[in-house]
């Protein structure tokens, strides 16, 4: 009973309440050329000697203790740490306390794409699994709601940049809800944290790691010897002009902006260095410190953020506070489309909304979880169809189980058959072992295959229907599979509704209506009665090519979504 209670508690997926981000007192303004004389002049700051700033805390997270307390967390959980380049046992900074996790959010200037889906599904799984292990987690994911891309897009559309970013932020949240990503504990926006950003920049300047040039503030990488420790890059690798335009005012081409002086037509805030707005990287340092403190457990994001964004975050945070450190840097891999890197220039840029027009959102989630989060994933329609087909099979089996057990809810209270108990224990063990091994969702998904097969045998085969304690076995297996699906974020609110939605999406992909499918089934039935078997097979093949499979049974012919027959050879060759 105690084990069952623990399983139920771990399977719970109650949502954390959203915490409102602390609004900054500063409010954005817009610079116009006619008002230039009225703007504040940059305050001249006393010069600093070019002394290197060395902070041992910035490197301490790569030591054997990982900067954490000595006491271990729940045994077995390991995460790959980008900084140490190895898997490490997870030891929370405050055993028995709250795990702090910060994940870099989106810059909302356009619809979110499947690369965003890949990242936030991966960290949602980590969030869920930490909670499954009974950790309390404070999960922070930001919105970069002021940025060069937002300003450029707003100018292109003739829209206020904050209105544009708010609109796309709301769309992003809708996409995340469709993918069943749990809401973070806090979702701060850059524009609400200008005071915190300005204060952090002041501290960096005071510590001799930044300098002011005509209202711009730059971080001095020469004064921070540990720069490059996360990415493994050397300063010589950061050649000027490769990522940003060459600025001759910089002391080193690798120096990066902490504060940008105001330009005509752009929003700006007052600062000690004159009107302007934050650079890209400083925001995450300031907001993570605001909500998690200067040192916390996990910082995550896509692999593309390792350099320069996360490298610069480490430099900024450590230069502002010597005690700043993060135990685990976790990054997800890239998304390719049909073997090519996804990009707008190649025309293979795929948004989440475009995908879920034709596929159930959880089919996309299942596809993403079918590859380990750190490995590159290749998006193809064929593989998405496979994921959708697998999802339908899973939900159909569980729905059949639900219907059967509801008809007869008798429970003798006796122990389950040995084979059922062994199957349940094996699934539980494989789920925890695979997830504790750096979130191997692929193994966790594969682990439900055998229980689903056993359930189908109990539901539909003559031998299975005669098995002792059949309904009790079905109920117990369904409960354990539900636990796994909940941990992976794949548990629907209703099996029946999810199946209906999967069928509707399949019809839309096939450009056919339900009535037309039923008409084809009637035509095929008539052909069979007339012994026109060639025509019967032809109708079946026509529908199979569209991704509609026909299933003959004692009660007639039914249909279900399937992988289109034309794609099955492609899928088989790629597995």
Automatic annotation (TrEMBL):
GO cellular component, one term: mitochondrion
A Gene Ontology BP annotation from the UniProt entry: cysteinyl-tRNA aminoacylation
Cofactor annotation: Zn(2+)
Family: Belongs to the class-I aminoacyl-tRNA synthetase family.
NCBIfam families recorded: cysS
Function according to Swiss-Prot or TrEMBL: Nuclear genome-encoded factor required for normal assembly of chloroplast polysomes.
The protein's name: cysteine--tRNA ligase
Native organism: Lolium multiflorum
């Amino acid at each position: 009973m105690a084990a069952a209670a623990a399983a139920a508690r771990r399977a719970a997926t109650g949502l954390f309440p959203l915490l409102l981000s602390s609004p900054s007192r500063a409010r954005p303004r817009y610079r116009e050329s006619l008002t230039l004389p009225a703007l504040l002049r940059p305050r001249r700051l006393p010069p600093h000697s070019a002394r290197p700033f060395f902070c041992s805390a910035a490197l301490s997270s790569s030591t054997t203790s990982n900067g954490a307390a000595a006491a271990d967390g729940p045994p077995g959980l390991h995460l790959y740490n980008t900084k140490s380049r190895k898997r490490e046992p997870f030891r929370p900074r405050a055993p028995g306390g709250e795990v702090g996790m910060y994940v870099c959010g989106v810059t909302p200037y356009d619809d979110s794409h499947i690369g965003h889906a890949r990242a936030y599904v991966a960290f949602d799984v980590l969030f869920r699994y930490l909670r499954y292990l009974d950790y309390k987690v404070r999960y922070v994911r930001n919105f970069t709601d002021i940025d060069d891309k937002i300003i450029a897009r707003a100018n292109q559309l003739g829209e206020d940049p904050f209105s544009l970013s708010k609109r796309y932020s709301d769309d992003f949240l809708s996409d995340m809800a469709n993918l069943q990503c749990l809401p973070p504990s806090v979702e701060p926006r850059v524009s609400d944290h200008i005071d915190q950003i300005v204060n952090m920049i002041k501290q960096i300047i005071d510590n001799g790691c930044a300098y002011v040039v005509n209202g711009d503030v730059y971080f001095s990488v020469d004064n921070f010897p540990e720069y490059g420790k996360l990415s493994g890059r050397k300063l010589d690798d950061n050649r000027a002009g490769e990522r940003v335009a060459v600025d001759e005012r910089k002391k080193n081409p690798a120096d990066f902006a902490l504060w940008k002086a105001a330009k005509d037509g752009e929003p700006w805030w007052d600062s000690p260095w004159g009107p302007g707005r934050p650079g890209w990287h400083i925001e995450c340092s300031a907001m993570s410190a605001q909500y998690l403190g200067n040192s916390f457990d996990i910082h995550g994001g896509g692999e593309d953020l390792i350099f320069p964004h996360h490298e610069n975050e480490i430099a900024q945070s450590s230069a502002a506070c010597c005690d700043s450190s993060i135990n685990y840097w976790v990054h997800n891999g890239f998304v390719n489309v049909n073997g090519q890197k996804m990009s707008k220039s190649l025309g293979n840029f795929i948004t989440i909304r475009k995908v879920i027009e034709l596929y159930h959102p959880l089919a996309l989630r299942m596809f993403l979880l079918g590859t380990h989060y750190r490995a590159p994933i290749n998006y193809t329609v064929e593989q998405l169809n496979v994921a959708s087909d697998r999802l339908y099979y899973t939900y159909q089996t569980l729905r059949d189980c639900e219907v059967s057990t509801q008809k007869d809810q008798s429970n003798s209270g006796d122990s389950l058959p040995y084979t059922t108990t062994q199957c349940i224990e094996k699934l539980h063990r494989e789920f925890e072992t695979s997830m504790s091994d750096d979130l191997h969702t692929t193994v966790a998904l594969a682990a439900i295959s055998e229980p689903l097969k056993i359930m189908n045998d109990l539901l539909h085969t003559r031998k299975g229907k005669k098995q002792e304690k059949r309904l009790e076995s079905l109920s117990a297996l369904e409960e354990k599979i539900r636990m796994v699906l909940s941990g992976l974020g794949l548990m629907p609110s209703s099996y029946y509704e999810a199946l209906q939605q999967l069928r509707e999406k399949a019809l839309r992909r096939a450009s056919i209506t339900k009535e037309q499918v039923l008409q084809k089934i009637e035509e095929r039935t008539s052909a069979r009665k007339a012994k026109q078997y060639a025509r019967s097979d032809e109708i079946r093949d026509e529908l199979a090519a569209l991704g509609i499979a026909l299933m003959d049974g004692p009660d007639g012919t039914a249909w279900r979504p399937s992988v289109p027959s034309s794609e099955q050879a492609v899928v088989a060759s790629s597995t």
